[in-house]
Amino acid sequence: xxxxxxxxxxxxxxxxxxxxxxxxxxxxxxxxxxxxxxxxxxxxxxxxxxxxxxxxxxxxxxxxxxxxxxxxxxxxxxxxxxxxxxxxxxxxxxxxxxxxxxxxxxxxxxxxxxxxxxxxxxxxxxxxxxxxxxxxxxx
Length: 139
Ligand SMILES: Nc1ncnc2c1ncn2[C@@H]1O[C@H](COP(=O)(O)OP(=O)(O)O)[C@@H](O)[C@H]1O
Ligand SMILES: [Mg+2]
Known about the structure:
The chain is of the alpha+beta class. The chain has one domain (about 5-135): 2-Layer Sandwich (Heat Shock Protein 90). It has helices at about 20-30, 35-55, 90-95, 105-115; strands spanning about 5-10, 65-75, 75-85, 115-120, 130-135. A 5-stranded antiparallel sheet has the order 1-2-3-5-4. Strand 2 (about 65-75) and strand 3 (about 75-85) form a beta hairpin. It starts with a strand and ends with a strand. The mean pLDDT is about 95. Bound molecules: adenosine-5'-diphosphate and magnesium ion (MG). Adenosine-5'-diphosphate binds near residues 52, 94 and 108.
């Protein structure tokens, strides 16, 4: 059950491509057996990660770069990777933001809550990689 297909997409670091990225995920997950609600949740999470890559990684398009999406399609789950090569941040910031608290953004909290697994890797000046996993529920 470990065989998987890999779909890779590379976008310019511009917020105008967030919708296109979400649509690509929509197409891929619709081919799997996810519910409409699960697909909407994943699109929301991908949009948050994409926006973060552009807004935080590349300072809102001031810095040019790319956002790389990788979808690993397994028979029973999808793994979504969002990678940027922007300014990055201390990995502890990403861990801290996964917990909900007043006055903080909700992006990472939503990714943590709405997926089955969230992994974050970042270092200052080394960009950022977000890995989200969503399993097909047995129905
Ligand atoms: N791709 C990224 N590159 C650099 N820093 C990031 C990235 N993604 C998230 N961060 C850091 O994590 C913080 C929390 O992100 P998030 O939970 O989406 O809240 P918000 O975007 O509203 O600040 C950001 O404020 C930023 O400091
Ligand atoms: Mg955010």
